[in-house]
Amino acid sequence: MLRIATIFPELLGTYGDGGNGLVLLERAKKRGLDVSLHSVGIGEALIEADLYLLGGGEDGPQQQATEALRRDGSLAKRLDDGAHIFAVCAGLQILGTSFAVHGGNSARGLEIVDANTVRSEKRSVGDLLVEVDDHDLVGFENHGGQTHLGPDVKALGSVRRGFGNDGRVDGFRTTGVTATYSHGPVLALNPWLADELLAASLRIELEPLASVADDLYEQRRRVLRA
Amino acid sequence: MESCCKIQGLTAYWFQSDIRIPLRKSQALFCKGTNRPPWLVPLPFSGLVSVKAMGAHVRKLGIRAVFAVRVVRAVNSLSRLLGRGEGTVIGGRVGLAIDSQLLRKLAQGRQIVLVSGTNGKTTTTALLREGWGGDVVSNITGANMPAGHVAALVTNSSPRVVLEVDEAWLPSVIRATEPTVVVLLNLSRDQLDRANEVRQVAQRWRDGLSEFFNNSNSGVVVANANDPLVVYAAEVARRVRWCAVKNWWTEDAVSCPVCTQPITHEGTWICSAHGERSEFLSWHCSSCGFSPSATVEAMMSTKAYVGAQSLELDLQIPGSFNESNALLALEALVVMGIDVHESLERMRLLRSVAGRFELRTWQGRTWRLMLAKNPAGFEALFHLVEDSKHDLVIAINANVADGHDPSWLYDAHFERLRGRRVWCSGERRLDLATRLYYANVAFGVSSDQEIAVNLSSSEPIDVIANYTAFASWYERSSPC
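The joint structure predicted for all components is written out below.
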């Protein structure tokens, strides 16, 4: 049984981020795999899961989510035990060492990944296209952060359109952790990434699953590459 | 075929032999109902009406503002003459550039009602306009920022004004117009790629209202008590009339606006004049105690309760969300001293608002056009259409006016459409189709032109479209 858990959707779910859990659940179900989707509410202990999802959120909720996860203390431990995390936008920043918050202050992150985020000169709002190995990651970003990765942290890919972490690269990928600035239901736009996450969490190879989502991916790719 | 002028959709055409020539608005007005060809259209410099016609209070504007008013009208007339849209925003912008205080000056001495919120602004504004009766000035084209307000106010000097206001602009429009009533409908996520973070909007409203009531001895807020973000904004106002209405969208209000802990839904509201209890739940924050007023002045429950009256609304525009809009509008008119039965009588005459809910024909079929722009709007319409099992058309674009990012598709519960077929149209139909695929809803993907052939039923078909997609559907169809 694959257990997927969306962490604090009430706090981190600004831009349809709930879509990522739905996409993973449905892509597993449509292949006949045994899967369940859970959500962890504010004030609840982190449940045991194979794949955790972190969404985006505004400054206040982002800080609140970080504090709650720090108090709980089990996310890093679960990662060490082999669980996976997929994070977008504010979720990406939370996993790092520090991030900028309202009023020019800085908040401490969960320090799971060596990445610190400062306030960017201007807000990045628009389409995002990132080259990730043989694929493109297509999406939309809306954030005011600029993220610097530590020397041992590998970015998810190089930015071809948009800003990502710093105008050059986007997100990061470390053992068990995948993160991108492409917010919201990014897995709906990139079925290949959803399948990569499922395959990694299940530790199996997946059968292909053709659907209209592939057409959407190809269309967005064409539009954003133009 | 005889030469004539005909309106099709939003555009007027001149038909001569088998040629169809699209007309500018000024030309259409000139030709309509006559056989005068459009090339005889006189230049509408008569549009540059004398400022005198605007009445006494405008003459007190001062030279700069009088000049600005003339320019607004001239630019708008020119814009209409050139066929560049409705000519409501450009002129207003130029006017504000000449006199930054123009909105304040034009608002002076009038009774102003402002309407703001994420959903229902245009409909509530229309309900207020109808319900008030007589000559009411209003930004009917939906241009809801200060340039649009200026453009509306220069057209007519009537003392009765209803303006719909963009959420982000509300504080500055309150400051400029010193309204008699401010109607606050709801706040939820909408076009987030414009960095419109909904809590920040609530905070700005709160700050704006607090400033207004510190400096003014008049003004009343009519506010939705069932929206925690609205309550957070309006509780600082010195005079508030709370209205309890059912909300279709609560996902932006699940955490407390004060302490961000979860909101608990329990208890009911009590109508102050009747002692009647609401049939839906009230809310409070069990962590910090933030809660709405337990008693309300108006309530939309099994009936509409407004002050001491209990009313059957019987509106022609459909949907319980429109009953909620009407309730707030009725309460606002009560504040203005209008008899509630008379205003309701007039509101009932409203059949559609800017084409919304209108039955239209195209390709030999009848379509009911509906507009939804965000998750809350879709939730409300899902509720309205859920009794039907017929095919449904949903059209999604992602142009500037729609917001470039359709991520919000995953915030609306398309799962509620299971059991019927949805035809996906609009420029972002693949985004919609993918959403429906994951929601396990049967769907077809089709260009607008091919939809009619694909439909299985001959009944009127519901079309739910977002902003620019709605405009395309409206343009291509004609009234029934």
